[in-house]
């Protein structure tokens, strides 16, 4: 078992690879009087897939919304590539290089696949938009070939799995350095979950996009993540290198329901 520190976070030490890309430091977020995040601190490095695990209501989506400027933290700092972003609004944060795929996917159902993808690139500066958009489209097609054949189809008529791919593709169109993905396995059949997870790993390894992977499906996320944090009732209760967590049935039983 890892070391238990003063504030009761279990830490299973492991090496972090790459430069520090995202640092969340002491974030607290409230909805009215209710506190959804309590003093949450975590890091994502440049070559990492970092998993955020936790059960229903743990605060995972609130963490993603706080990171992407959809809700404001009352305390703490969020630093992306050395720059504080916790007071910035969503479209500024996207421009700084942090994109997200929300839990609800938020596609424009009556627009086509192509239109949804193109909207993902709206935050790019005018001078480079055309070139980057074309490059990014090729990238998205290399990751999700099925989208290429469905460019004229309305998003609302895609299957659940295809919609998840489109939501991911649209986020990648913004040319992010960091991608936060909230429950990408939600509603997918087991085979599609495995496929989605290996695509996320490719996005990190081949396209140099650091990943914050929010999942209730711990087993699937642990297969591809480098480092893991577990949230419980708004607090980080465990952090550690993924291989250490996988190697410890005791830790899994205590924090991940075995
Ligand atoms: N808009 C909101 N207004 C009030 N409370 C909210 C709001 N959104 C979330 N909460 C509360 O904040 C807590 C954390 O919710 P959150 O959606 O972040 O959890 P989660 O870990 O993503 O859960 P799930 O696995 O079910 O998606 C919950 O108690 C929830 O009821
Ligand atoms: Mg959620």
TrEMBL record:
SMART domains: AAA (SM00382). InterPro entries: AAA+_ATPase, ABC_transporter-like_ATP-bd, ABC_transporter-like_CS, BCAA_Transport_ATP-bd_LivF, P-loop_NTPase. Keywords: Amino-acid transport, ATP-binding, Nucleotide-binding, Transport. One of its GO terms (biological process) is L-amino acid transport. One of its GO terms (molecular function) is ATP hydrolysis activity. Residues 22-258 form the ABC transporter domain. The keyword ATP-binding applies. PANTHER family: HIGH-AFFINITY BRANCHED-CHAIN AMINO ACID TRANSPORT ATP-BINDING PROTEIN LIVF. This is ABC transporter ATP-binding protein.
